[in-house]
Amino acid sequence: MFIVPAIDLLGGRCVRLHQGDYGQVEAYDTDPVETALTFVRSGAKRIHLVDLDAARSGKGTNRETIGRICAAVDVVVEVGGGIRTDRDVEELLVLGVERLVVGTLLVKDPSVFAGWVKRYGQKFVAGIDARNGEVKVSGWEEGSKLQDSVLAQRCRDLGAVSIIYTNIERDGTLAGPDVERTVAVAEAAQMPVILSGGVSSLDDIRQLAQRAHPLLAGVITGKALYKGRLDLAQAVTLYQKPWGGLW
What we know:
alpha/beta; single chain; TIM Barrel
């Protein structure tokens, strides 16, 4: 299981939202590039970036910051949020992003997602974000009437390399991860899934590692790191290892 620290970007700043609510923003007085370097020094092999401005409006207002992070670190950088056009894909790949997390377009126009895989290769991760099992899109502000397990079943055929699954009700709450729902999504998809949302402590990481489900590839953590409730270096030392030889 690999441990992936998250940096959510809003207006060029590191922030966290509570349950994906743009009205409940907590900003941190840290430089995003220095934050990424700190994560790498702690042993992270992969960093998860979310462009919250792009996710909400479809405009890549944090591209400059994303580019500086990619230039500064020598680990896998994945980016989600507002990836909806060929131009978005090409700009992010030029910046050095290695994994592109796609959610809204995966629901609204899956044929485009499949076309991207054919054109650009195995670089696309399916972002499935759900509340009470219903997939949410457009910065989690729109419903889809689509169940998370149903979308998960489609991801392999569309060419996704993996899934990042977020239970929105847990995200930014430090209430503990939704392991059971994540495992259900992984089993529906029969492909590797990275859990996101709710991680609060080293004990949560330990429980995930002990679960040792063959399709639970990794875990994303954000707020617990910023709040000092989780020591990334300790978590990496104790529990991190590549999944299937990959980060």
